[in-house]
Design goal:
The complex is a heterodimer of chains A (240) and B (306). In chain A, 75% of the residues lie in helices and 0% in strands. With 240 residues, chain A is mainly α. Chain A has one domain. Chain A is globular. Chain A starts with a helix and ends with a helix. Chain B is α/β, with parallel strands linked by helices and 306 residues long. Chain B folds into two domains: 209 residues, P-loop containing nucleotide triphosphate hydrolases (Rossmann fold), CATH 3.40.50.300; 93 residues, Alpha-Beta Plaits (2-Layer Sandwich). Chain B is built from nine helices and 13 strands. The model of chain B has no long low-confidence stretch (mean pLDDT 88). The chains are: A mainly alpha (240), B alpha/beta (306). At the A-B interface, helix 1 and helix 4 of A face strand 5 and helix 2 of B.
Chain lengths: 240, 306
């Protein structure tokens, strides 16, 4: 499994598949911090940026090997699960590398006013995970491993990425199915609302507590990621 | 080694079956050839056997410890050099770095890949890429070797090396399955030929093993009786009979190339070379031929006498 992971990572890096999804992140980060902002406002924005970027990473990593080469990796590794799991793990690893960058960048460049406390950083990390992981889980579902015709798949991925955002705000809907769906949807807006409007945990009594509103979002995101990963493995296997 | 039971594969729910109700067992130590025209389902069957594609219906059971798979066409998009690619696949196969390095060296030598070892695979010619595909499948001596049209694009030495490698896997107790649309090519190595047509297994024949065949080599030499003891201990020799002009040597087909080389190096002239099936009792056949020749000679002598 470790060997398959190393191979997949080397493949993505040597084939430069990581470059395109990295671009919006590299360009977006300085743009978002062009003005000084409170720590949690800044983190809310970069967490939202990471949501489509992670989805793109999911697609790029899964599409890196062509079909024949994937056949070889599967046959050599003695089963399909190590090969597919390595793809998920590689995409996850690359996305996880971006989170410390997004957290540290404004602190290093001095873009925060007031400066971030340890509590802000922890909330920032949680916020990035809450946006990036569902984005990644959604992305791999539209990779070539699941959907053969990539032109359609990428269009549908874009539609799903965009429409999942407002769906996530329907948490106070009167209809139970909509409420459940809202909790499952990637909590991009939920995170943004929870984080913005606060002056940070260091603010002199001005901030409100961020933790409690994020708990249902966290549970929903975990459930969504688990379901999407299971669906990915099942659909990708069926399509082989 | 591997059992397919009533296996069917459809790529879409209502589409035609690419492989329809195929049952097949690959025994250890055998080479099975799958032949058939284009679109007969050979590649799909290979992917089912390799476990990379799940069957729509039926079961595939595999007991091989490791699988070597050569796809029909090896892609150009590999972003590695042959050396790095084989290192990665060897590690995925679970080989330790030391044995893996030795194995890569052996395979690169055998298929003449060292000059291309550090060239990116995408820039290699089709034949060289095919050699890389074959070398990766042979890493660590696979228990089950699956080759989809492996001879296409290979030069003559590589073809010979490939045939030798297939036979080695079978000799080590593994099973090999190979497809080709030219039956003459697979005939060289196969114990068994399965014929596919429109996804159905239409014939499954055991063939006389060519590698169990024997050859008769007749050589000219000045002192047949003196030369015979020198030839008898050579590898692959089954028996030696001196005659008036030289020696008649029975040998295994597998060792015949090396044996011929040795005979030529010793300054012997090859007078006749013939291959016989494993079912022919060459010893008896030679005795019969001798008796006939003696009878003819006697008849000739009698005719000349008056």
């Amino acid at each position: 499994m470790i060997a398959t992971l190393r191979y997949t990572l080397a493949d993505v890096i040597r084939s430069n598949r990581f470059v395109l999804p990295l671009l919006p992140f590299v360009v977006g980060l300085p743009l978002l911090y062009s003005n000084q902002s409170p720590p949690l406002d800044g983190y809310a924005a970069t967490a939202a940026l990471l949501y489509p970027v992670a989805a793109w990473f999911g697609v790029a990593v899964c599409n890196s090997e062509d079909e024949v080469r994937l056949d070889l990796t599967v046959a050599t590794g003695g089963g399909w699960l190590p090969a597919y799991a390595a793809k998920l793990a590689t995409a996850l690893l690359l996305v996880l590398v971006l989170i410390p960058v997004a957290i540290a960048y404004p602190m290093v460049t001095g873009a925060f006013s007031p400066s971030a406390s340890r509590g802000d950083v922890l909330i920032g990390i949680a916020a990035h995970l809450l946006c990036a992981l569902p984005g990644l889980a959604l992305g791999v579902l539209f990779s070539r491993l699941v959907v053969r015709r990539q032109a359609y798949a990428l269009l549908w991925l874009l539609i799903c990425l965009v429409f999942a955002v407002p769906v996530g705000t329907l948490t106070s809907s009167r209809l139970l199915p909509l409420r459940l769906l809202a909790h499952l949807a990637p909590p991009v807006l939920g995170v943004a609302r929870a984080l913005s409007g606060t002056t940070g945990t260091s603010g002199a009594g001005g901030g409100h507590s961020v933790g409690p509103p994020l708990i249902p979002d966290t549970l929903g995101a975990l459930l969504f990621c688990t379901a999407a990963t299971a669906a990915f493995l099942k659909l990708a296997r069926a399509r082989a | 080694m591997l059992t397919l039971e009533h296996v069917t594969k459809r790529y879409s729910r209502r589409g035609p079956a690419a492989v329809a109700d195929v049952s097949l067992t690959l025994e250890p130590g055998t080479v099975t050839a799958v032949v058939g025209p284009n679109g007969s389902g050979k590649t799909t069957l290979m992917r089912l056997i390799a476990g990379v594609s799940p069957a729509t219906d039926g079961t595939v059971r595999c007991q091989a410890r490791s699988i070597g798979y050569v796809p029909e066409r090896f892609p150009k998009t590999v972003p590695f050099t042959p050396l790095r690619y084989l290192e990665h696949l060897g590690r995925i196969r679970g080989l330790a770095p030391g044995p893996l390095e030795a194995d890569i060296d052996r395979l690169f030598l055998r298929f003449g890949l060292w000059p291309f070892a550090t060239v990116r695979i995408g820039t290699l010619s089709k034949g060289t890429r095919q050699k890389v595909a074959i070398a990766q499948a042979l890493l660590g001596g696979p228990g089950l070797l699956i080759l989809d049209e492996p001879w296409s694009g290979l030069d003559a030495p590589a073809q010979e090396a490939l045939t030798g490698s297939i036979l080695e896997v079978a000799a080590a107790g593994g099973a090999a399955v190979v497809t080709d649309h030219r039956e003459s090519v697979v005939d060289a190595a196969a114990d068994r030929i399965c014929r596919l047509d429109l996804g159905e297994l239409v014939a499954d024949d055991l063939v006389a093993r060519r590698r169990d065949a024997v050859v008769l080599i007749e050589v000219d030499c000045a002192d047949p009786a003196g030369a015979a003891p020198g030839v008898e201990p050579l590898h692959g020799v089954l028996g030696v009979r001196p005659d008036h002009h030289g020696l008649r040597i029975r040998a295994t087909h597998a060792a015949s190339n090396d044996l011929l080389r040795t005979l030529l190096e010793r300054g012997l002239w090859i007078r006749r070379l013939e291959r016989f099936g494993a079912d022919v009792d060459l010893e008896a056949w030679l005795e019969e031929a001798d008796a006939e020749a003696t009878a003819e000679a006697e008849a000739g002598a009698e005719a000349e006498a008056p």
